[in-house]
Amino acid sequence: MRCNPRFPWFLAGSLISLASVADEHQANLPVLHFDGFGTLGVVHSSEEDADFVSSLTQNKGAGHSDDWSAGVDSRIGLQVTAILTEQLSAVVQVVSEQRYDASNSPVLEWANVKYDITPDFSLRAGRIRLPTLLAAAYRKVGYVNPWVRPPLVIYNMLPITSNDGVDASYRMPVGAAVATLQAFYGRRDFRVPEFGELNARDTVGLFGTVELGDAIVSGGYLQTDVRIDAANELFDQFRQFGDAGTAIADRYEVDGSTFSLWTVGGSYDPGDWFVRGEWGRRHTRAFPGTAMGWYGSGGYRIGQFTPYATIGQRIRVGRTSDPGLDVAMLPPPTREFAAALNAGLNAALHSDEYDSLSIGTRWDFMRNVSFKLQLDHIRLDAGSQGDLANAQPGFRPGGNFNVLSATVDFVF
Amino acid sequence: MARRIRAACVGLFLGMTAADSVGAVDVVVVMSATSPTVTLNGDQIGAIFLGKSVRLANGAIAVPIDLADGSAERTTFYTKYAGKTPAQMKMHWSKLVFTGRGHPPRQVSDAEDLKKLLADNPTAISYIDASLVDDTLTVIADY
Fold first, then answer.
1. DSSP A71-124
2. pTM of the prediction?
3. pLDDT tens, A41-53?
4. Mean pLDDT across B4-26
5. Tens digits of per-residue pLDDT, A271-286?
6. Residue A17 within a domain
7. I need a labelling partner for B65 at 20 to 30 A (CA). Which of A44, A67, A92, A239 fits?
8. Which H or E element spans position A295?
């Protein structure tokens, strides 16, 4: 993870030097708040030739690597907020969870300064999670979500989840409703298991919500230019094969390629029950391709229990295979190499389509703690690896498998 | 522990019943008797305690104060004015806290501390067991 090494530590240092701990009188600023959240979870997957993971940045999970994996959903987050004046505040949040290299090294999740021009109009600068979907900004806080994890068919469509940059948020009444609009701009580097470093630049977008009583509707757009150097090494090899090879490389490589994400969503939660659904479309001409994802979910509260069910789907739009170089037309010594390149291209283009059906329940058995049990039935489309990581040589794409998850979420 | 179980049972019971006439504690919404006249309806009171900025007639923003987390008064108040269980309120605030968008109201441990705090802060609003109301307080709402 690349980030300005000075910025967060300067901020932490200034927080500690400035303030006294959360104080008797609200008017006596500055004030420091200490908060935290976490999840302890175990997951079992019936697919033994690959790993079920919960995020695009994990390379190890349940199934092949572990019969019962504690790494998939377990995490802890610690946050310090400094209220410096009535208008100025700063926040630093660090999360420790299993990462792309199977380590649990803490990652800076939020680190920004916020200025409230008015109570309804604020600006932020620093590290900010991106609001692409209803639960995206607080995805890692298990306690606030009704499910063990947000529906991956749509929440795993893009690994670009935060920015180092700026954002603005404006809230206004629209009749009896309240509309909020957020705009953001920035950049960030990520690490994904298959390809290593991913650079996202000029990440820009909008996310708007309209809330009326217990109902929310949302809509968002994000656009970013992405570079994945390790993938480009494959495509550079194609360039040795004349115009045909160059055409393939130009089309599929991820070298400043634009990715876009459109989302719409809705939620109705009067308290005793809820329904929720979101739809999204990720588009790029580069090899990850264009996909559509959606889910619908509902639950009902019975005392301390909130059982729920979710159905979702991801559909790939466009190519999931390519004939590649015409091997027969090439001189014999190069044919084996060209065939290997074609195989690499098609492996990169592989489908990630799947359906998922989940049932589970949340149990709020204790203050600030909730227990969840969830069963996911995943149906991979033909040729699809879904969101599975660490596929072994024996892994056969397509087919069905089941995932059982038990988590304890807490906030403090 | 027993108090927590009692509060949880009250919350459970209140959450499961539609009528809000049943409750272990009769709770009223109060401000200091020294505050200028304030008229707020149930929705506005709920909004204040959910973190929205609601201005009083004199232009000042109302400052919510909570009683202790897990207390019967708090559970009853949030059921009546926000329609939320303690867990739902915690979820609501956690979304705001962990996205850097706000913090829950200041909390006092008992009615005595509350009365002192309200006396010092004319824009502060809170709730209290109806039987504890005295002439240092004005009742703003009583649903």
1. TTT-EEEEEEEEE-SSSEEEEEEEEEE--TTS----EEEEEEEEEEEETTEEEE
2. 0.87
3. 999 999 999 999 9
4. 51
5. 999 999 999 999 999 9
6. no
7. A92
8. strand A290-300
* C-alpha–C-alpha distance, residues A283 and A302, integer Å: 41
- The answer to whether B99 contacts A301, with C-beta atoms less than 8 Å apart, is no
Element (H, E) at A313: strand A305-317
Tell me which DSSP letter residue A236 carries.
H
Is residue A344, in this structure, part of any structural domain at all? no
Cis peptide leading into A30, omega within 30 of 0? yes
Ranges of chain A whose pLDDT falls below 70: 1-27
**Which residues, in sequence order, are CB contacts of A187 under 8 Å at separation 6+?**
A163, A164, A165, A199, A200, A201, A202, A203
- Which sign, positive or negative, has the C-alpha torsion B143, B125, B46, A78? negative
Which CATH number does the domain housing residue A157 bear? 2.40.160.10
Is the CB of residue A351 less than 8 Å away from at least one CB of chain B?
A: no
CA of A123: which chain B residue's CA is closest?
B101
User: What is the distance between the alpha carbons of residues B118 and B121, in angstroms, rounded to a whole number?
Assistant: 5
Asked casually if ipTM beats, i.e. exceeds, 0.90, the reply is no
pLDDT tens readout for residues B51-93? 987 888 888 889 999 999 999 999 999 999 999 999 999 999 9
Domain B2-141 is of which CATH architecture? 3-Layer(aba) Sandwich (3.40)
What is the distance in angstroms between the Cα of B99 and the nearest Cα belonging to chain A?
A: 6
